[in-house]
Amino acid sequence: MKPIEYIAVIGAGLMGHGIAQEFAIAGFSVCLYDVKEETLQQATQRIQGNLKLLSAQGLIPEAVIEPAISHVRTSTNLEEAVHNADYVVEAVTEDLPLKLRLFAELDRLCPEHTILASNTSTFMPSLLADATQRPDRVLVAHYFNPPYLLPLVEVVSCPQTSPETKETTLNLLRQIGKHPVEIHKECPGFVANRLQTALVREAFAIVQEGIASPQELDAVVRNGFGRRLAIAGPFEIGEAAGWDLWRAVAEQILPTLSNNREIPEALEKLVETGAVGIKSGQGFYTWGSEETLSFRQRMAHGLLEMSGWGKKSE
Fold first, then answer.
1. How many Cβ atoms are within 10 Å of 304's Cβ, its own excluded?
2. Going by DSSP bridges, is the β-strand pair 138-143/152-156 parallel, antiparallel, or unpaired?
3. Handedness of CA 277, 282, 285, 287 (dihedral sign)
4. What is the CA radius of gyration of the chain?
5. Residues acting as catalytic residues
6. For site-directed labelling of 225, which of 72, 73, 261, 306 has its Cα 20 to 30 A away?
7. CB–CB of 280/211 below 8 Å?
8. β-pair partners for 73
């Protein structure tokens, strides 16, 4: 495999700018592509703001900021962005036809040796590989938002992905300070989103049955087992308590849990009425500018406090 020197990130939105930032901090040359110049300008401003925040929290030295910014260039020309890329990360919207068209185009424009990785959170890599003539160099590298504060990247191969492509990706991610986890078998949603979706399904069922309100349920998670999950995983927690205890709990609770395979009725209603949360100003909560700012600051500060695992200054 050719050494990775030049990286292209396709899509400069919520995830793309943060992914580009991570590679730039590590010293890689990065081209950040988007179809809109305005989006690229906003992405550059966000990267600058993120770097200053990380520096203020002691996670990176101040001296890293200017070099990192200089490592990122932007382009609205896809061919220009990827013509000499060794590694491409696709981070466009979660739209399968769009991703398939993009992967076919990337396959045509990129050098033969280029690895094509997708940041998709749901689609299996085999679907994307089929759109190319290089299925051995296609896989998923699923980051979590915000990518510069959350260390996990799920690395998902398809049957056609070569061992060299997988190992190159794992090593590259470790090199920039991430915590890649290899997912051994492709499936929709991989691991993290399957777990999150199972939790959300049960959360909607609890609310629909009148057991608790959305606000009360959030308080239970936030002030209870959610704190443990930031420190230990379900199997570690289970072994600490003892599987005999968990079996007794499961015997009582499992028969009562939701096994609904349809979209929850309350979720459908939220979407139909446009009450989709922060971006519409209304969901189960009311999101004015003050409430939105307060929530985002709480999330950022909480994640920053836990970010000792990924200090780039060490």
1. 16
2. antiparallel
3. positive
4. 21
5. 121, 142, 154, 193
6. 261
7. no
8. 31
Six token digits for residue 141: 């590298």
What the block records as the tokens of 84 is: 């000499």
Q: Which residue has the tokens 């992967």?
A: 103
Q: How many CA atoms lie within 13 A of 182 on its CB side?
A: 13
Q: What whole-number distance in Å separates Cα of residue 159 and Cα of residue 144? A: 24
What CATH class has 191-261? mainly alpha
Residue 79 in tokens: 């061919």
Q: What residues contact residue 129 under an 8 Å CB cut-off, 6+ apart? A: 135, 138, 158, 160, 161
- Enter the tokens of residue 222: 């936030």
How do the domains of the chain map onto residue ranges? 6-183, 191-261, 264-295
Taking only the tens place, the pLDDT of each residue in 230-254 is: 999 999 999 999 999 999 999 999 9
pTM: 0.92
Triad 181, 184, 190: Cα angle to 5°: 70
Domain 6-183 has CATH 3.40.50.720: yes
List of E strands, the chain = 6-10, 29-33, 72-75, 87-90, 115-118, 138-143, 152-156, 179-183
